[in-house]
Amino acid sequence: MGTAAQALGLALSLLLTFSSARTVNSGDTLEELQRRFDNEADGVNKAKMLGKLGDAQFLREREAVKAGDFSTAALIMEKYRDNVRAALDAVKKAHPDGERHPNGYKQLEMHIEGGLREVQDLLTAAPEPYQPPLEIVKADLLELDKETLHRLFPRRPGEKPLPPKPPADATPAVTPPSQEKQP
Questions:
Q1: Has residue 24 got a pLDDT over 60?
Q2: Helix (H, G, I), strand (E, B) or coil at 52
Q3: Domain 29-152 architecture
């Protein structure tokens, strides 16, 4: 009976420790969360941090929409997209094989789905001048989601593999004009 009481006491103290830590951390500002995210080197931790950071960004974006500040809301969603891209790049660097090492990819995929819903809601509410950049954010998030899913499940029947992305500094090759004679 003493062992069960000790286990219960340990479980209770752990619960209190984690709930008080959650309360302390829940007061983090968006800026503080962004700073920690930017400084995080581990890809899996970065992907996990995106959940809390993204939720804080969504909250700030909704507040901007309520205030009628669609410019700020659009900038927040662009920053969210950039954060998703940074987290995915960090996870790919740490674990290129998402099928074998899904940690990080799973968290990203779940959060990107929420981000897509958020940007779609913003597109519905935003006036026409703000929609083109938001459409770009939505398209980018769809591509990031597709890449994340493809890394988690690379062998899906009937689906073509993703084409390799050209390097950013690559210039298209110029082909010489045809040397054929015209009749």
A1: no
A2: helix
A3: Up-down Bundle (1.20)
Q: Are 45 and 95 in contact (CB under 8 A)?
A: no
Instruction: Give the number of other CB atoms < 10 A from CB of residue 169.
Output: 5
Give the domain ranges of the chain.
Answer: 29-152
C-alpha triplet 143, 53, 131: angle, nearest 5°: 50
Are the C-beta atoms of residues 109 and 88 closer than 8 Å to each other? no
Range 37-40 contact pairs with CB under 8 angstroms and sequence separation of 24 or more: 37/83, 37/86, 37/87, 40/90
Hey, what are 133's tokens?
């950049």
| The pLDDT of residue 20 | 32
Q: Coil, strand or helix: which one is 183?
A: coil
Q: What is the pLDDT of residues 42-91, one digit of tens each?
A: 999 999 999 999 999 999 999 999 999 999 999 999 999 999 999 999 99
What amino acid occupies position 67? A
Q: According to DSSP H, which parts of the chain are helical?
A: 2-25, 30-39, 43-66, 70-94, 105-125, 131-152
What pLDDT is recorded for position 134?
A: 96
CA distance 44 to 30: 20
